[in-house]
Design brief:
The complex is a heterotrimer. Chain B is an alpha/beta fold. Chain B has helices spanning 19-32, 82-87, 104-112, and strands at residues 6-10, 37-41, 77-81, 99-102, 116-119. A five-stranded parallel β-sheet of chain B has the order 4-3-2-1-5. The longest helix of chain B is centred in the N-terminal third of the chain and has 14 residues, at 19-32. The chains are: A alpha/beta, B alpha/beta, C alpha/beta.
Chain lengths: 121, 120, 94
C-alpha cells in the first residue's frame, strides 16, 4: 500500500503550515496511508500550546489535534529542535501539547525507510 | 535493515539560519542507520565547502569542522555543482577532501539516482 | 527516473526556481503552490518549458494570480497527493 511521511519545518504562524495541514488531510481523504509527521526546525513550534492566536484566525494546533485524534497519525516532535525553540519537556512546566510524541531524528530515518514517499514541507 | 538512499541538497550559505547544521545532523543520523547518504551543494550552498572560514569570529558554531566526521558515518559522497562555483568566482579550495565537482548536467543526473531528496 | 518539484517560493524574491530549472530532467514536472504561484507570470516559466507545470488553483486565486499565458494546468490541493506517486521522488523548494 502506498504511504506518505511528512516533515514539517514551518512555524504555526506561517500560512504554508495551513497548506501542509490541508495537504495531509487531502491525502487521508484519498485513502492514502500517512505513516507519520515529523516536526523539525521551526516546525516544532506547532507543538507549543502556549502560542495564542486570535480566535477568529486559523488554529494550527487545533488542526493538528484533529488530525491526530481522528486518524491516529503519529506527530513526532524532534526533541533537540524543540529545546532550541523553547519547548519544555519537564512535567511541571511542560508546554508541549499531548498529541505530540517526543522523538529523535532516528524516528525520521524509520519513517523515511517505511514510507513510499517523504514530503518535506 | 531496509535501504533508502538519501540526497541532501544544500543550498543555503554557511551561516544562513541553521540550515547547514540541521542538514548535517540528518546526514549523520541516516549514516548511522547505515543508509546511503550523499551531500549535494548547489547555489549558495557551495559556500559551506569553502576553505579557511572562521566561524568563531562571528560567534557561530563551527559545524563545518564536523564535516570531516562524515566518513566515520560512511557518508563519502560529496558533490558540488561547478556552475555554482563559477558563478561565485570560487575555486575548488575546499576544507574537505574527496569532493566531486560535477558539471551542472552531471550534478542533476547524479541527484536523480537517489530515492529521496531533502533540501536545506 | 522522474521528480516532482514542489515550488513554494516566488522567483521574484529568491532564486529557487532558477536552481530547480537547472536540475529539471525530461520526465520531471513542477507544481506551483503557496507563493510559487507568483511564478505563473515569470519569464523563466513562460519561456517555453516543455515539462508539465501544475498550479494549486486555490493558492493562485488567493493571490489574484491568473495563468494568463496558459502555461500551467490548474489542480486542487486535494489532487496533489496522488501526483506524489506518479513520480519517483519529490523535491520541495521553499
Amino acid at each position: 500500500m502506498q504511504s506518505l511521511a511528512f516533515i514539517i519545518t514551518t512555524s504555526p504562524l506561517d500560512n504554508r503550515t495551513v497548506t501542509s495541514i490541508n495537504l495531509i488531510t487531502a491525502a487521508l481523504h484519498n485513502n492514502i496511508k500517512v505513516l507519520g509527521v515529523f516536526f523539525y526546525q521551526q516546525g516544532v513550534c506547532n507543538a507549543n500550546k502556549d502560542i495564542i492566536i486570535a480566535s477568529d484566525e486559523f488554529q494550527p494546533l487545533k488542526a493538528w489535534q484533529n488530525l491526530q485524534q481522528k486518524y491516529d497519525i503519529p506527530l513526532h516532535l524532534c526533541v533537540t529542535a524543540g529545546e532550541k525553540h523553547g519547548l519544555i519537556v519537564e512535567e511541571q512546566q511542560a508546554n508541549i501539547d499531548d498529541v505530540f510524541t517526543l522523538s529523535g531524528l532516528g524516528e525520521l530515518v524509520e519513517l523515511s525507510i517505511q514510507a513510499t514517499r517523504v514530503i518535506q514541507l | 535493515m531496509q535501504q533508502k538512499s538519501l540526497a541532501i541538497l544544500n543550498s543555503s550559505s554557511s551561516f544562513d539560519r541553521t540550515q547547514g547544521r540541521d542538514a548535517l545532523d540528518i546526514a549523520l543520523i541516516f549514516g548511522s542507520y547505515e543508509q546511503r547518504v550523499a551531500l549535494f551543494f548547489q547555489g549558495e550552498g557551495v559556500r559551506q565547502l569553502v576553505n579557511r572560514q572562521q566561524a568563531d569570529i562571528i560567534q557561530a558554531k563551527d559545524y563545518l569542522a564536523t564535516f570531516s566526521a562524515l566518513p566515520f558515518y560512511d557518508v563519502e559522497e560529496i558533490y558540488v555543482c561547478q556552475h555554482s562555483l563559477t558563478d561565485r568566482a570560487l575555486t575548488t579550495d575546499f576544507h574537505l577532501d574527496n569532493v566531486s565537482v560535477l558539471s551542472a548536467g552531471d550534478f542533476a543526473k547524479k541527484l536523480q539516482q537517489f530515492d529521496m531528496v531533502l533540501r536545506f | 527516473m522522474s521528480t516532482l518539484h514542489l515550488m513554494r517560493t516566488s522567483a521574484y524574491q529568491q532564486n529557487d526556481l532558477t536552481q530547480c530549472l537547472d536540475l529539471l530532467q525530461a520526465n520531471d514536472a513542477i507544481v506551483l503552490l503557496d507563493d510559487g504561484c507568483y511564478n505563473l507570470s515569470h519569464h523563466l516559466l513562460t519561456a517555453n518549458i516543455s515539462n508539465p507545470i501544475y498550479h494549486i488553483n486555490e493558492h493562485a486565486i488567493a493571490r489574484a494570480m491568473l495563468d494568463q499565458k496558459k502555461i500551467s494546468q490548474a489542480i486542487t490541493l486535494a489532487e496533489l497527493p496522488a501526483l506524489f506517486f506518479t513520480f519517483d521522488k519529490v523535491i520541495t523548494w521553499q
